[in-house]
């Protein structure tokens, strides 16, 4: 039996939780298996003896502090989203017992349970090292009620298909194509998308190898071609000034077909593409869900992206997601599920241009971009880049995009955070390449964020800047690596073990910056970045990874 112990709101300190945990582990086993939200402790009760022992502890007069720390104890009830006739696909997550053998047994029992109840299992996908997600079809409310009977159920939520949208319009615009130098080496950026068309502008920049989860007849290259076009020709097409090299190589990873798919299938495709190509370290992912992330828990999609990056030592540059609430005169939606990935570098959109009817001023957040904060108040998006503008005409949204390519090779406009993200991927790929050292995704994130800036003239409160624009717009890899003559950048890396400390010595200020009174005159910008501990069973224990 799994029980949920709710901690009193005045007793959320770790000292109080320690007393509660000791009581729940009274039989000598590690019964506590995780948290549900930030105030509910989940624990196993393996026998009547354990229940009796807990009752005796609670009944003792000297344990009044412990008793007052507990608001409620009850049998855990899984979260079940109500039945919806329009969408009968459910994402099922089982309880993680922190025990390899027991978890495997519960998964087998669940599959047997589904067969016995006539519940169709459409997908079984590993999201993290210890989390297996099932997608099932439920044809009636009665079938959903039967699903609730399974003892190892953690949650059953409606899962929504992912749609790839690339609204683009051809323009009478042409640029000169470029070719890679056969004697030069270039960074490689993986493009996790719908596929890249072999148009003359891009064909020479695609690597000889590629990955595809779908045969050619099930591919539609419009979205992926537009994304790749901005990675390769963003500066030339749009007048940006962020590239440091002639070009980058593009690895075509077709993980999305020409029809909507569910997140479980997309995660499986992404994991396979990344694992099969370990030499590629920077991946652009301009795909995601339209479902808003929660404030108090991380999505399984986000956890899966974190796990893929941790297991493969890669960096995924991820779009924050779009919304159309501006067309109804409503505030922007918060970040989408999948953009709540801790490890990913999440990118929002700002406007690069404004016409007569556009809602956003130049360098201001695009009307369609989603905003923070993420779960546990983490800063998402991390950065922003140019992704277009929008207006409302006759009650409908109309978009002004950034320039890229269509599958026919024409230049067209494309708007959305899908198309702000590639510009940051280009910078991240070039930065990693120019550093010429073992790949460190944390270092890449740290340098991009450290040098990021808010555009001049932005009149917003700092809290609004962070929620709307993260830490700002990144600069080019060259600007990051090659300082001006009167500045220096130091990168200090170390490991701080639990219970230890780092002794800080006096900083050696240059004599030319110390006045006659011994005072330092100058500016110091400090960015502190850490690799946060992530645990899908303890979702509130995630620290904000970046401080400035």
List the helices and strands and how they pair.
Blueprint: E1 2-7, H1 14-24, E2 32-36, E3 40-44, H2 48-59, H3 64-69, E4 70-75, E5 79-80, E6 89-94, H4 100-117, E7 120-126, E8 132-137, H5 141-147, E9 153-158, E10 168-171, E11 188-193, H6 200-203, E12 211-212, H7 222-238, E13 249-254, H8 263-276, E14 282-285, H9 300-312, E15 315-319, E16 345-350, E17 383-386, E18 389-393, E19 396-400, E20 402-405, E21 411-414, H10 421-435, H11 441-451, H12 462-469, H13 477-481, E22 528-529, E23 546-547
Parallel strand pairs: 5-9, 11-13, 11-14, 12-13, 14-15, 15-16, 16-17
Antiparallel strand pairs: 1-3, 1-4, 2-3, 6-8, 6-9, 7-8, 10-21, 18-19, 20-21, 22-23
Describe this structure in words.
This protein is of the alpha/beta class. The chain folds into three domains: about 1-75; about 80-160, Alpha-Beta Plaits, CATH 3.30.70.60; about 180-480, Peptidase S8/S53 domain (Rossmann fold), CATH 3.40.50.200. About 25% of the residues lie in helices and about 20% in strands. The protein has helices at about 15-25, 50-60, 65-70, 100-115, 140-145, 200-205, 220-240, 265-275, 300-310, 420-435, 440-450, 460-470, 475-480, and strands at about 1-5, 30-35, 40-45, 70-75, 80, 90-95, 120-125, 130-135, 155-160, 170, 190-195, 210, 250-255, 280-285, 315-320, 345-350, 385, 390-395, 395-400, 400-405, 410-415, 530, 545. Strands 12-13-11-14-15-16-17 form a seven-stranded parallel sheet. Strand 20 (about 400-405) and strand 21 (about 410-415) form a beta hairpin. Helix 8 packs parallel to helix 9. The chain is globular. The model is unreliable at about 540-548 (pLDDT under 50).
């Amino acid at each position: 039996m799994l029980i949920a112990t709710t901690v009193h709101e005045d007793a959320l300190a770790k000292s109080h939780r320690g007393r509660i945990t000791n009581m729940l582990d009274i039989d000598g086993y590690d019964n506590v298996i995780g948290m549900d939200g930030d105030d509910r402790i989940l624990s196993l009760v393996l026998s009547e003896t354990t229940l009796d022992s807990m009752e005796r502890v609670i009944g003792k007069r000297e344990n009044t502090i412990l008793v007052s720390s507990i608001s409620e104890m009850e049998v855990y009830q899984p979260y079940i989203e109500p039945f919806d006739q329009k969408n009968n696909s459910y994402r099922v997550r089982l309880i993680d017992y922190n025990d390899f053998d027991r978890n495997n047994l519960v998964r087998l029992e669940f599959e047997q349970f589904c067969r016995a109840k006539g519940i169709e299992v459409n997908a079984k996908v590993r999201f993290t090292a210890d989390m297996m997600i099932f997608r099932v079809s439920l044809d009636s409310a009665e079938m959903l009620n039967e699903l609730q009977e399974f003892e190892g159920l953690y949650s059953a939520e409606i899962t929504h298909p992912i749609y790839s949208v690339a609204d683009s319009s051809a323009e009478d615009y042409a640029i000169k194509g470029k070719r890679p130098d056969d004697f030069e080496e270039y960074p490689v950026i993986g493009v996790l998308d719908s596929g890249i068309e072999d148009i003359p502008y891009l064909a020479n920049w695609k690597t000889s190898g590629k990955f595809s989860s779908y045969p050619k007849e099930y591919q539609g290259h419009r979205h992926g071609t537009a994304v790749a076009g901005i990675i390769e020709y963003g500066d030339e097409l749009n007048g940006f000034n962020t590239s440091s090299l002639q070009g980058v190589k593009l690895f075509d990873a077709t993980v999305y077909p020409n029809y909507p798919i569910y997140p479980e299938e997309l995660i499986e495709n992404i994991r396979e593409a990344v694992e099969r190509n370990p030499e590629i370290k920077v991946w652009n992912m301009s795909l995601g869900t339209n479902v808003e992330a929660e404030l108090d828990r991380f999505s399984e999609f986000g956890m899966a992206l974190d796990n893929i990056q941790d297991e493969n030592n890669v960096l995924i540059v991820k779009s924050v997601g779009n919304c159309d609430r501006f067309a109804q005169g409503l505030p922007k939606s918060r970040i989408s599920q999948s953009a709540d990935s801790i490890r990913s570098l999440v990118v929002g959109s700002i406007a690069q241009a404004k016409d007569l009817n556009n809602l956003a001023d130049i360098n201001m957040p695009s009307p369609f971009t989603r905003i923070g904060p993420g779960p546990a108040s983490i800063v998402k998006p991390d950065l922003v880049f140019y992704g277009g503008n929008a207006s409302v005409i006759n009650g409908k949204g109309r978009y002004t995009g950034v320039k890229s390519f269509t599958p026919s090779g024409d230049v067209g406009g494309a708007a959305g955070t899908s198309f702000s993200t590639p510009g940051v991927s280009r910078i991240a790929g070039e930065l990693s390449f120019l550093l010429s050292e073992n790949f460190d995704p944390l270092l890449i994130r740290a340098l991009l964020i450290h040098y990021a800036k808010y555009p001049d003239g932005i009149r917003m409160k700092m809290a609004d800047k962070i929620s709307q624009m993260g830490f700002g717009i990144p600069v080019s890899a060259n600007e990051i690596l090659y300082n001006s003559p009167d500045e220096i950048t130091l990168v200090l890396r170390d490991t701080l073990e639990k219970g230890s400390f780092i002794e800080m010595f006096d900083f050696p200020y240059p004599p030319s910056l110390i006045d006659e009174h011994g005072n330092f005159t100058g500016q110091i910008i400090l960015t502190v970045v850490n690799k946060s501990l992530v645990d899908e069973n303890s979702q509130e224990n995630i620290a904000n990874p970046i401080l400035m």
